[in-house]
Amino acid sequence: MRTRKNSTKNAPSRAWEDYLKAIYKLEKPEPTDKGVQTKELAERMSISQASVTNMLKKLADEGYIQYEPYYGVTLNDSGRSIAMKMIRNHRVLESYLVERLGYSWDEVDEEAETLEHFLSDKLVERMWNDLGQPTHDPHGSPIPNIDGTIERKNLTSLAEVKLDTPVMLERIKNRSPEELRYLASIGMHIGAKIVIKNQAPFNGPLLIEVDDQHFHALDYRMALALFVEDNTDSINH
Amino acid sequence: MRTRKNSTKNAPSRAWEDYLKAIYKLEKPEPTDKGVQTKELAERMSISQASVTNMLKKLADEGYIQYEPYYGVTLNDSGRSIAMKMIRNHRVLESYLVERLGYSWDEVDEEAETLEHFLSDKLVERMWNDLGQPTHDPHGSPIPNIDGTIERKNLTSLAEVKLDTPVMLERIKNRSPEELRYLASIGMHIGAKIVIKNQAPFNGPLLIEVDDQHFHALDYRMALALFVEDNTDSINH
DNA sequence: AAATAAAGTTAGTCTTGGCTAAAGTTTTTC
DNA sequence: GAAAAACTTTAGCCAAGACTAACTTTATTT
Ligand SMILES: [Mn+2]
Ligand SMILES: [Mn+2]
Ligand SMILES: [Mn+2]
Ligand SMILES: [Mn+2]
Fold this sequence. Notes:
2 copies of one chain form a homodimer. By secondary structure, chain A is of the alpha+beta class. Among the domains of chain A are: about 15-75, Arc Repressor Mutant, subunit A (Orthogonal Bundle), CATH 1.10.10; about 155-235, Roll (SH3 type barrels). Chain A has helices at about 15-25, 40-45, 50-60, 75-100, 105-115, 120-130, 175-185, 220-225, 230-235; strands spanning about 65-70, 70-75, 155, 165-170, 195-200, 205-210, 215-220, 225-230. In chain A, helix 2 crosses helix 3 (about 50-60) and helix 5 packs antiparallel against helix 7 (about 175-185). Chain A is globular. The first copy, chain A, starts with 13 loop residues before the first helix and ends with a helix. At the A-B interface, helix 4, helix 5 and helix 6 of A face helix 4, helix 5 and helix 6 of B. The complex binds manganese (II) ion (4 copies). One manganese (II) ion binds next to helix 4 and helix 5 of chain B. The first copy, chain A, binds a DNA duplex through helix 3. Chains A, B: It is found in: Cytoplasm.
């Protein structure tokens, strides 16, 4: 008689939501055989591995994830839907703070990381409508739809772009506030025209030209977080 | 060696903030000899008396309150300052939701009750500035200043107003969403002109005229939550 | 194929913030 | 002065979500 106290589904707690979101973010876009590792989760969330294992069992019990001990974890539909909701809440709020309350992009993440769990559906929809139902946040990340679907464009990292081929910056993935401020200071905003003029060996810095105006040396690790339109389609087809 | 884990002051938790706010709300405007009762707190917060006693000891340990067993509790400056901050957060957010996101007044309280604990100072100040630094929320309640001071006007409940004396509605104290909607539907908004035409005996309903237009029968208990400018000054002076 | 390293799980503990129930204390009211 | 109400104490319980230490499983080297 495994009657569970929680059988009348309470809303998942903040902790559960953060786990599900972290799993989503660690899942590879191309589905592989192995799921997300306990260790990856522990590291990303700054929580001990033992605590992660513990929580994964609960999440699996409630049907949010597929959990194969020692082999990692994948999201079920119910879990993915919660993850998408958190990401929608997060990105809509961040967009709102930037567009309506004069926040700069590097200030919004901390606020959103907490508030994403406490915003009502109503509030998120009102902010989203007020913003004109945007599909992307100000840093180019897609905002999931209310039904939990999300655009999955194939973007290429700036680190992989050919030399002397102009590209347009489409998305800047999460970096620290300091890095974001730096990137902004060298003109790296969505829509900027970028040309890679050279790449130093051993994954060294890139020499780039921004908006036909300035040259900058861009650290390779930062280039990995900057994304442009993918061109492989036209090549593979 | 009573080294306490918490001696490096962590931010007070949501639970602590809600206690301090509840104590503030139960303190009488005219300072009396006795503080707020355990029982009142227990009732207002829907928490058992034993649990309240327990928490009061912790709050006193940390210096947020003055706690005299059997005699009730009063806020210290540190505790009052947290209470004021919660109320400021709450009222600024409610005002913002109404003014900028099209909420109606009866929708905002639930949202604010949770979010008040998670809004950053920065966000509250930006909303407040965006609204033009209002001193009162849309239902006439004063918004505490950043330094924790608050206007304490002497208002009179509509239940105590003399017959046939026109008064202006200044403040509607917290009621349920249903009651707020009803009050709105009979024209009870801040600034409305009200004349008491009659009061039925035994604390019965008031016959009122609103904005020189309509007559309504107003339940005595609702009249207790509606406030107008105090006139006793001009009488006592 | 064994040894080692890395990843993962188990078991036991802790803190926070709740609860009930029963018994004793203090204050207030009659 | 007695009874009622409010309050505290004690004891024991619970759930969530962390932790550490010890052990197990899987993967990688040699
Ligand atoms: Mn973010
Ligand atoms: Mn979060
Ligand atoms: Mn409110
Ligand atoms: Mn609250």
